[in-house]
UniProtKB/TrEMBL annotation:
Keywords: Membrane, Transmembrane, Transmembrane helix. This is Uncharacterized protein. The chain crosses the membrane at residues 96-115, 127-149, 156-174, 180-200, 212-232, 244-266. It comes from Cryobacterium frigoriphilum.
Amino acid sequence: MAEQRISIEYPLIRQYLVAVDPVIRHRTDAQDLRDELADHLIEAVERLRATGVDSDTAERRSLSRFGEPAVIAGLINAIPAKGNTVHTIFNREASFFAFVAAILWTAAAVSIPFAQDNLVAAWTQGAYVTSVLLIGVAIAASGVVLLSLNVQVSGAFDSIAGIVATLLGLAIVATLLFGWFLFLWLGLLIAATAITMTRARASAVTTGAPTVLLGYVWPVLTLLVLVAAIFVTGPAQNLGSAAIIVFDVVALPLVFLVYAAGNVLLGLRMRALMPHGTAPHDAGPGPFITA
């Protein structure tokens, strides 16, 4: 359906498509989606006009029945691009990885006090390595979820998803090599999470609580904890001080637990949006949207 004709004959539908476009334009199949959405709306209008309803009223009724543009755009973004095997690979078990990540972050939170000097017990290399490994694997599991969201939004593994993957990879390496340097690996994780949640904020998976928790609450909390780290760590730190104990036993574990909660929310939302199990690798031809 030519855009010029839509603008002239169906001005309200044109406005609706313009409202949807910013959310889906990243996708490789964006034009197909726009065309199909327009076809569905125009068919609904024409059915009403055939019963004697005037054009303006028919457009308004059809759009009202179809739903708000932001809601429809979010639902569209939850649909894999046609024939996109990359999307399927990342999304098929993304909810599983979200729950695994939540468990790993919780375990990492519990391990933190044991990895520090004289908080729970005498420091051992084994306790430190265990804590670092838990954090590294937790980042990896969360990374699958974040990449899944990026691919869902764009319909492909694009350049921004590549940037997120690079940040996550660097965060894992930094954790394993410099686990004590919180500013490095937590900063990289904040960046990867912020990019993803900003990009996916209109997705049906992230709207509401997941975006609030992982897009706002967790980054702010983590930054505050990192600032606090400046005052409680360093060459002159007192390992037995109350500040160190609060930081290692309360503040840092809380950062991990909040991130774990965010992964749980994402996992539950993904599970709710995929009630019929895994999608096939290639859905083949067929409608993106059903009336």
